[in-house]
Amino acid sequence: MCLFTWTCFASIFLIYFFITNLKKKEKKSMFKKRDKSSKVYEFWYLFLLIVGICIGSGIYVKNQELISQTKSPWIATVLWLTIGLVCVISIVVFMEIAKSTEKEGNGTVSNWCKLFINRKFASFVSVLYTTIYMPAYQSIFVSLTIAYFFAFTGITPDPKALLSVYILVGVSLFVLFAFVNVYSANISRKMQFFAMFIKFIPLIIAFFAGFLIAILGSNPKGNGMGMDSGTDLLFMNFLGGMGAILFSFDGYIFTANTQKSAKNKEVVPIAIISGLIFITMFYVLMAISLFLGGDGSVETVLIQVFSGFSEHPSDTSIKAASTVVYLIMFLICLLNINMFTHFGTSNLLSDHNMKLTYLRKGGNGFKKSAFTQMAISVTFYVALILVGGLSSHGKWAGMSTNVNINFFDPETQKVIYIAYLTSPMFYVGIMSSVCVVLIFIVISMLMIAAMWNRKTQKVKVSKVKFFWPSAIISTTLFLFFTICGLIVFLAPQLIDSSDMNWKTNGGMMFTIIFIVTLLATIVIWLLQERMFKINPFENGFEGEIDKDMKVNNWMAAKEAQELREINNETKTKIKST
């Protein structure tokens, strides 16, 4: 556990050291005087922002998963393309929705629901984000950070030690990143800049390597896009992959609100749509490359690279490639904890400022929001990890699990260590699926409300071209994708007839967690409504608590840094004269 903790701290230090030196070099470069208000600069800033938000761990962990769900690389690739294009179409709707908060207010899904639907539903959505969505995403990345650390180091703890590390180190990571975001916002912000390099380098290598492997004919895992384990029930196979791909695109709508702070607002829709088209094509081409070069995973393609594209890679090559992938995934997941800690804190404070979430008065707003979100997320995480670690599911037999027996694969004659290491986070994974379903239902309802607003004019917004065809197509398809994903989650036997037992295939547990999640959210929402009555906001629920409130700590830190740089340049000029 000490080794793990020190590795996390060392990783953060190296990230900070790299970014600090990069920043110093940047100041000395010819780009020091770049115009940050120019259209070109703003276009690329927004373009890279949306690419950085959407392209993350999804392509690493979801593409191979799609094969087991869809039974065909062709179906998986078509799904990447279809859902990506629907997201591109839907952003037109959110460009109009975001115009409601162009001059005042905060661009969160909760606040848009307040404007286009009503305040009570918006408060419910805010509770959903605070108590379920953000904790689930933080928890899944905390869990994967721990699992990939063990996979990278080759350490295989016994079940009791594994569960203890998940609890103790996991809680420490929640606390660590809460403190980093509160007291070292600049470090937190710069970490995400570094994350762009971390996650793209292996993807770019694997992208070109996959096509090269196909040309050389050295794919040891299958026959490229033709690898097919049977395509019976073709329609159900299409349904099976929708949940995984929705997970990979989740969060893209947050970029629509960047037009509020943009100096050149006309470049925002161009940058966002261009970014989404790039993401969609990248996912599609990346999927094709990974299927042509292996079994759909980045790891398999990198094994070929490290073995010199041999059809029979050595154990050393396999070990080297696995180590690289696990190290990269460890760093990506570690940095994603930071990102969702920031998103969770900013979202909670923003919704409080819009009078949607109850927080006690007094003290620093961002600090209070950060530690409130941390407490909620830690409680959520510990509860799910304990249930996942102590109960039996799949090959995991609780604390009596024997890794060499339970996780021995007769087909490969090897122990599947990564499956063992991720077993305690089984229910955390299910909760992330629940979140995807719930949030896309909310998104669909918000788009329906935006269409209704065209008739009622309840919210005065500037009309966006192509709104109606975009709204009708994207809303219809999002509802279809969400319903299909929910059906498959509730009844996995529809796509996997080999396991018709609803109790053991995950369907029953997903159903229970889905219902409990809804009930818990409703109870918390009702309690919050009670607190609103006991301690009402001044001037009711209209407007903001404080129009000058800094709800984004990264932005506040960036503005403070730029102000210091301007002051330093001014002092230098004064001295020189």
From TrEMBL:
Keywords of this entry: Membrane, Transmembrane, Transmembrane helix
Gene Ontology molecular function: L-amino acid transmembrane transporter activity
InterPro entries: AA/rel_permease1, AminoAcid_Transporter
Chain segments annotated as transmembrane: 6-22, 43-61, 73-94, 124-151, 163-182, 194-215, 235-255, 267-292, 324-349, 370-390, 425-450, 471-495, 507-527
Name of the protein described by the UniProt record: Putrescine/ornithine APC transporter
Pfam families: AA_permease_2
Entry annotated with the keyword Transmembrane: yes
Location in or out of the cell: Membrane
Superkingdom field: Bacteria
GO CC annotations on file: membrane
Keyword Protease recorded: no
Topology versus the membrane: Multi-pass membrane protein
